[in-house]
């Protein structure tokens, strides 16, 4: 490891450093009331819908929250698992595995997951960590590409929590890792493994969550970062530019969003004679409604209806070892300078020295 030596902490001391791995959040149940609560919080966030509050809140509460919750609940019901929402299941699993990886590397850190909307909320997790005496918190969003709508909103939630707190832990934020080699390799390996076991289509569509086009004009780097991820992923897979296409999905509302849109692109491809397509969603680090329902159900149906013959959905990086290793590397880089390495136990050190001396080693 090329890292400089870090201060160590004695054995048996509580971990005073924490990582909060933050994802978007998901409803507690696939029901209209649970969806109403979740969507009210999500779509009430001024980072997500940038319409003046006075105009937006009556539309949100008077129209959208009367109709959308039931429709969205039916979609969630179609992907729900016995353990709950896929986004929740994967996010929890990723945090557990990250804790294990970092522990194996000798770091004494608490790893918790938190959700920007819904539960466990960012303030609830931070309150708990503070009560445990945690002195340093690394906030690691589950979003590789920075967007004001997602990453900055996580930062808002943390700073809103911190503003009434007198004695604050040290805080660090990871803003982006869209071009991180570990992330790109984890994506490339997931895709190659899928090709090896299921065969390869004639074209790869890389579908990212969209944002309103206006945010690009206002300086949001999201579009740029999606393009860079797509280019690096294409290079890692050895694909020429005509073998893959970058698209944007999940448009919300009437405004223009980033183009090209995923589903119309797939339909146009099928109409032009493309028979076999592979679709991957590199901006999503865990499978969720937007990948399992919107892509693997709705977009699949549209492609096949338009004349396509085979639609292969390639799952997200989820709990793949390459991805967890990439997350651990990323966390390790951002933890630098914080005392997280557990010192070797003095008794064990002594025993090792004695063994080495008995074997004739020179110190
Ligand atoms: C990956 C990054 C994401 C960006 C950027 C993003 C922007 C964004 N989203 C909406 C509206 C909705 N998104 C919804 C679901 C959803 N969005 C993301 C990620 C990003 N969103 C994920 C991972 C999910 C799935 C959550 C899950 O529970 O599985 C939904 C809710 C579902 C529905 O009712 O359709 C909405 C609404 C906007 C407006 C926006 C940027 C302005
Ligand atoms: Fe979204
Ligand atoms: Fe969607």
From TrEMBL:
Pathway annotation: Porphyrin-containing compound metabolism; protoheme biosynthesis; protoheme from protoporphyrin-IX: step 1/1
TM annotation in the entry: none
Top-level taxon in the UniProt lineage: Bacteria
Enzyme class: lyase
Catalytic activity: heme b + 2 H(+) = protoporphyrin IX + Fe(2+); Fe-coproporphyrin III + 2 H(+) = coproporphyrin III + Fe(2+)
GO molecular function terms listed in the Swiss-Prot or TrEMBL record: ferrochelatase activity
PROSITE patterns to which the protein is assigned, alphabetical: FERROCHELATASE (PS00534)
Binding annotation for Fe(2+): 209, 290
EC number(s) recorded for this UniProt protein: 4.98.1.1
Cited Pfam families: Ferrochelatase
Keywords, alphabetical: Cytoplasm, Heme biosynthesis, Iron, Lyase, Metal-binding, Porphyrin biosynthesis
Main location (coarse class): cytoplasm
Localization (cell): Cytoplasm
HAMAP family membership: Ferrochelatase
Family (UniProt): Belongs to the ferrochelatase family.
Protein purpose: Catalyzes the ferrous insertion into protoporphyrin IX.
Protein name: Ferrochelatase
Annotated source species: Hydrogenophaga laconesensis
């Amino acid at each position: 490891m090329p890292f400089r030596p870090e201060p160590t902490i004695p054995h048996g001391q509580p971990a005073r450093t924490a990582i909060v791995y933050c994802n978007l959040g998901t409803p507690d149940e696939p029901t209209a009331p649970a969806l109403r609560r979740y969507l009210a919080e999500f779509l009430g966030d001024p980072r997500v819908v940038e319409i003046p509050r006075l105009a937006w809140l009556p539309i949100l509460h008077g129209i959208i929250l009367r109709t959308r919750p039931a429709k969205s609940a039916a979609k969630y019901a179609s992907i729900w698992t016995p353990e709950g929402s896929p986004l929740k299941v994967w996010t929890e699993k990723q945090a557990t595995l990250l804790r294990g990886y970092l522990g194996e590397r000798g770091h004494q850190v608490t790893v918790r997951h938190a959700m920007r909307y819904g539960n466990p909320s960012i303030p609830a997790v931070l309150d708990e960590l503070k009560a445990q005496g945690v002195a340093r918190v690394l906030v690691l969003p589950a979003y590789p590409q920075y967007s004001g709508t997602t990453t900055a909103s996580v930062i808002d939630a943390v700073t809103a929590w911190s503003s009434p707190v007198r004695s604050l832990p040290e805080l660090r934020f990871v803003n982006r890792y869209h071009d991180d080699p570990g992330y790109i390799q984890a994506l490339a390996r997931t895709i190659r493994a899928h090709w090896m076991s299921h065969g390869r289509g004639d074209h790869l569509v890389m579908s990212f969550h969209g944002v309103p086009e206006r945010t690009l004009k206002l300086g949001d780097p999201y579009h740029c970062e999606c393009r860079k991820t797509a280019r690096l992923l294409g290079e890692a897979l050895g694909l020429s530019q005509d073998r893959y296409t970058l698209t944007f999905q999940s448009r919300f509302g009437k405004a223009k969003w980033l183009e090209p849109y995923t589903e119309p692109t797939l339909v146009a491809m099928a109409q032009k004679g493309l028979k076999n397509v592979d679709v991957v969603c590199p901006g999503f680090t865990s499978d969720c409604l937007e990948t399992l329902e919107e892509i693997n159900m709705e977009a699949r149906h549209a492609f096949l209806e338009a004349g396509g013959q085979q639609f292969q959905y390639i799952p997200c990086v989820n709990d793949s070892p390459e991805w967890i290793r990439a997350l651990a590397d990323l966390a390790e880089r951002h933890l630098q300078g914080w005392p997280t390495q557990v010192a070797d136990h003095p008794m064990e050190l002594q025993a090792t020295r004695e063994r080495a001396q008995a074997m004739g080693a020179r110190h």
